[in-house]
Amino acid sequence: MAIFLLAASIDILLGEPPARVHPVVWIGNLISSLRTRALARERPTRLQGLILALTVIIATTLAGHLLVRIAGHFPILGILVAAYLLKSTFAMRCLLQVSLDIGKTIDRDISEAKKMLPALVGRETKDLTRSQATSAVIESLSENYVDSILSPIFYYVLFSPIGLGLEAALAFKAMSTMDSMLGYKTKGLKELGFAAAKLDDLANFIPARLSIFFMALGRPAKAGKSLRAAINYHGRTPSPNSGWPMAACAGALGIRLEKPGYYVLLDGGQEPDTSDVPRAVGLMAATTALTLAASVIVLLLTA
């Protein structure tokens, strides 16, 4: 409980640490090194991708475990190190602030906003209209709530009763980071990143479906519409998981979310406007607060 509350406090009050001391950056450097070696071969295989994925997961969890064990020999230091490592697995303040900042920039300077959007989205941004750019921000905000907040917290809470909460959260973050760096259907990465993409899908399976209930509670007056949208539209996205939180968000806000050429969520919803970004951020802030509250309750009950 102390580790969890301290980690959440660090995130809310301080945000992200500098890149040079950010554990997720270290994980990314390890993945990058292994990817470079694998791609140096003529045709990377799925087996090589699986070995890469297992190597990153094991190295990440083992390093975190050993750091905490070593720090635990000094008063309070073990808790501080564990909290710092746990905080690195989620990004509440960063996600909400970046979304809000890009939403304001779309209003002020759409060209500048398109340059900022890659911090949130993986799609091509140069031809997006103002409405489509707004939709991209809200889609990514709701999708990343699962990947960047709910899932690592879910695994921390789930495995804490057996003393492996931090290790579970770090393992998830390793999978998530690998998916973001390897999970593309391009030449070379299609096979190498197959295991990383599937592990990420599997790890997010339960949290993605759980997310719609937190979102419904985050906007209780629109709970029914949010849940109905999630049930009716979740299958429209290529990902087996992202459609759940995005459709739930669309239903709660009453807006139409679209990735041109790929999917439309909530056909009858209003076209998104930049004024909807603060509404979406408010919804996700409430959803995140409920996530933290539920986690504290579960940790208390299982202590």
Structure classification: mainly alpha
Radius of gyration: 19 Å
The rough form would be described as globular
Low-confidence stretches: none
Describe the structure.
This protein has 303 residues and is mainly alpha-helical. The chain has one domain (2-302). Helix content is 72%, strand content 2%. The protein has helices at residues 2-14, 23-39, 46-71, 77-87, 92-108, 110-116, 130-159, 165-182, 189-192, 194-218, 223-233, 243-253, 276-302; strands at 257-259, 263-265. The chain has a two-stranded antiparallel ribbon. A hairpin with a 3-residue loop joins strand 1 and strand 2 (263-265). Helix 5 (92-108) runs antiparallel to helix 13 (276-302), helix 7 crosses helix 10 (194-218) and helix 10 runs parallel beside helix 12. The longest helix is centred in the middle third of the chain and has 30 residues, at 130-159. It is globular. It starts with a helix and ends with a helix. The relative contact order is 0.13. The model has no long low-confidence stretch (mean pLDDT 95).
